[in-house]
Structures are given as C-alpha cells and as structure tokens.
Amino acid sequence: MNPAYQTLGELKTSGYQPKSIKEEIRQNLIHRIKQNQASFDNIFGFDDTVIPDLERAILSRHNILLLGLRGQAKTKIARLMIQLLDEYIPTIAGSEIHDDPFQPISKYGIDLIREMGDQTPISWLHRSERYVEKLATPDVSIADLIGDVDPIKAATLKLPYSDERVIHFGLIPRAHRCIFVINELPDLQARIQVSLFNILQEGDLQIRGFKLRLPLDVQFVFTANPEDYTNRGSIITPLKDRIESQILTHYPRSIETAKKITLSQANIHPHQHENVEVHPFHHTLLETLVFKARESELIDTKSGVSARLSISAYENLASGAERRSLKNGDLKTTTRIADFWGIIPAITGKVELVYEGEQEGPYEVAIKLMNEAIQEVFLDMFPHPGKIKSGKTKDPYGAMKLFFGDGNTVTILQDMSNEEFQQTLLKIPGMRKFLDDYNILEKDQAIFAEFVLHGLHQFEIVGRSFVHNRLEFSDPLSSMFDQMGEEDDDQ
Predict the structure, then answer these.
(1) In 88-237, where do the E strands start and end?
(2) Domain ranges across the chain
(3) Which CATH fold would you assign to the domain 8-248?
(4) DSSP 3-state assignment of 237?
C-alpha cells in the first residue's frame, strides 16, 4: 500500500480494503509458498517438522503456542513472523491502538471520524512497529496487559471516572492489529491467564467495570517450556483450550544443522573473522560435545541444553585462539583442541546438573563431555587403537606407542606459537606417516596430530595431564603417577 495517502478520503479513493491481521499473514504466507520462498528466514532444522506445523496454523488463522526447551528458537520464530506482515498499514493519526480508518474501535477513532469525515488524518505503521513482546513474570498485572483507570489523566482532562477517556490501555489493546508475544507463559499467574480468556475467544476485554467491547484484532503467539520442567507454574487448561495450535519445537537433529545454527548466530568480531580460523573439524567437535551434553546422565534433560551453549562456546573458541595469536605476535592462527579449555565457562554456566553431576563438579563434567566428544569423532575418522589384532595388520599407531612407551613426553603450552606447535607435534615418530595414510592435508597436519594425541589418551594409549596452562602427553603409567603426586602436593 502506498503510504502517500494522508487523509481518509484519499485512502477511500485508493481502493484499500481492510483485512484482519490473521488474514494478512495468511495471504502473505500463501504468496511465499507459491513463490517457493522460505516462510521463515535463517531457521535451520525445522523444515520437515516445526515449519509445516506453523504454516498450517497460519493458514488456519490460529493463535499459536510454541512449546519446547530453552534455546530452541521459539522467540526467534515469533519475531520472524513480522516478515509475513504487509510493509505498511494505515491507521488513524494519533490513535493509541492503531485504529483502522475503515473500522475504528476506540472512542477516540470513532469520534474523530464523526467530526472530520474524509478529512480525518491518516498515518502509516511499518511492520517493524507491529510486534509487541512481553516476558511473563509473576509480577505482571492485569493493568500491564489489559489496562486500568488513570487518575492523573482524569484529573488533567477533568473527566469523571465513568468516561472511557480516563482508561490507560495496557499492552494488548496497544497491540491491536499487531503480533503480540508472551514468552514463558507458565510464569504468568493463573488469575492473569484467566484475563486472556475473552480476548482470545471473543476479542473483547473489561477494565475496572467499564462496559467496553473492543473487538481487538491481534495475532497471539505464546512460548513456554514443557510444564514438567518449570516449577514456577503451568498453563491453565482453559487457556490452553483457547490456543488453537500447539507446536512442539526441538533441538537440531544433526551436527551439520547445529553448525549452521551456530554460524548464523555467533557474534564473531571482524578482526577474528580476518585473522582466526575456527577449523571446521573443531566446529564439528564442539557440536558433538553439545550433543553429548544433551544425552548425558549428569545433566538435567528436562532443563535442556540450549543452542546458546554452542554459540557462546564457538565465540570463546575463536577468542581463545585470538588471545594466543596476540601474545605470540602471530598474524593469523587456527583453533586448537588446547583452546577448548577456554570454552569451559560457556559450558558450566549453561547446563543444570543432576545430583550425580553436582557431586562430580561442573568443571569435571565439562572435561568429561569434551573427552566423550573426542572419542566419538576419533572413531569416526581412525581405527580403534585397542582393537588392532597383533600380527594380522600393521599397527598404524605402533611408532607412537613405542615413542611414549620409552618415556618420552610431548608438552603443548596453551599459548604456544604456530611454529612451535607444528614442530612439536610433527616430530613425533610415526605421526606424519599416520596422517598421510589417512589423507590429512599438509596444512592441517599439526591440528590433527594434536587430535590424535587426545584420541589416544581416550583409549589409555597415551597419558594426559593439564597443569598450569600446559598439556603433557606421556606414557600412561607415568602420567598416572604424576597426577597422584599432584594430589599429594595439594593435600
């Protein structure tokens, strides 16, 4: 619609036809489907599950409840719905609740049109201004959502309390012809949830006994965690009955999808983009760690493991590599597994541990997840070190086993320069041949050599200890004695 029209009369001559917000969203979705456009941009992993359910709900002109664990893009989906709105809609200028010039519902809008007729001024509302979001908390009141009598307005305008003009509208009336989102709906007190009944069913509301009937036109979207997770409340059954479509969200079901989500959301500084490479292999390892966290018996599965863990960890991984390169004066660098120790704060702050996990401690749980991820990825790439039958095939790890068995140690400092890192790892006997045999590119060999050491540690072929910002790989028995000595020193 052309926002050049400035009066009701001009709008009438334009051929403008009013429509409800749900019809508006429906028509724009139909257009996108016909044009083979994505209904929701930058949403990954929901193409065959959540998105079809959303499209059916929109085509049915339903209010929507998105139900899922934290970090499953519920709020993002709600915010993306503004893409399905018309770019501009006309409103009566000065109306608090975005009155449609052809169908005003407020006393202000009705009176203004009665007084000015076709000269009624028109303003234009952009779709970006038609989104209202409220986080449900126990202190949210009916006045916040619906409205209340404003004594200051009554005194200023010298109006009796019986006059509708003394009403201060809440968020929902002000969201007339808009998308209105309530996040974490179960946190809303039951009596507040009751106040939504008539709005959802009939489109009307009541404020302090005023006999109002405002036929509000609102697209409601609610988000919630499953009720068996939150201890703070639940969605009352009559309200759930009035929300026509309940759509279940989920975490990404493949590593590749998880990587796309993380890359689309991670806030990487331009300097890091230019000078730090988060190696794709390390990104795979990071997402595998998150998948392991979602399966772990030490972590509360009802709480979930948010996609924000992956995003924060990815950012820390890049920052850890950047910090190292700055200290060493390296112009460019690539991430290392040693940098994964820097993502531990992103893990410990975003998982809720069960009793057994609390007994282990957050740090130890994070290390355990890292080890499990390394072991799984290692076995996807290389043969199991403990299942190579002697005499039948040559042991690809043989030279490395002999090297560490002879008492040799490899030390990797967290802040080691690129050159030292490469020289230290590739001088290990048998390492280069092993990597060549598995077609590892020359430029990636130091990165994978480090990974091989961590992988061999998982199968007790090589010992590993992490002390004072340095990793030491050695014969597993000597490593065990070193750790025992460190424990004695601590005592």
Answers:
(1) 88-92, 122-126, 131-135, 147-149, 167-169, 178-183, 218-224
(2) 8-248, 251-381, 386-491
(3) Rossmann fold (3.40.50)
(4) helix
| CB-CB contact of 64 with 243 (8 Å) | yes
The mean pLDDT of 297-326, rounded to a whole number, is 93
pLDDT tens-place string over residues 369-384: 999 999 999 999 999 9
Produce one character per residue of 239-272: b if its CB has 16 or more CB atoms within 10 Å, e if not: bbeebeebbebebbeebebbbebbeebbeeeeeb
Q: Are 388 and 395 in contact (CB under 8 A)?
A: yes
Structure-block tokens of residue 248: 């279940």
Q: Which amino acid is residue 162, in one-letter code?
A: S
pLDDT of residue 192: 87
Provide DSSP, 394-460: --TTHHHHHHHHTT--EEEETT--HHHHHHHHHTSTTHHHHHHHTT--GGGHHHHHHHHHHHHHHTT
The string of pLDDT tens digits covering residues 31-67 is: 999 999 999 999 999 999 999 999 999 999 999 999 9
Q: Rounded to the nearest 5 degrees, what angle is found at the Cα of 289, between the Cα atoms of 285 and 294?
A: 150
Least confident of 212-216, 322-326, 456-460, 476-480: 476-480
Predicted structure pTM score: 0.87
Answer whether residue 294 shows pLDDT above 90: yes
> How, if at all, do strands 333-334 and 88-92 pair?
unpaired
Q: Which two tokens stand for residue 359?
A: 């007994």
Distance CA(460)–CA(161), nearest Å, equals 80
**Residue 234, Cα to own-chain centre: how many angstroms?**
23
State the DSSP code for 135. E
CA distance 159 to 166: 7
CATH class label, 251-381: mainly alpha
CB within 8 Å of 77: residues ≥ 6 apart: 40, 43, 50, 54, 66, 249
Kindly tell me if the per-residue pLDDT of 290 is higher than 60: yes
Residue showing tokens 């020193």: 489
pLDDT of residue 489: 47
